[in-house]
Amino acid sequence: MKKIGLFYATEGGTCEDVSKRLVKLLGEDNVDLIEVVDASISDIENYDSLILASSTSGVGELQPDWDELYNEFDNIDFSNKTVALLGLGDQDSYPDSFAGGVSFFYEKLKDAKLVGQTSTDGYEFDETDSLVDGMFVGLLIDEVNQEELTQKRLEDWGEQIKNDLL
Question: pTM for this structure?
Answer without folding.
Answer: 0.96
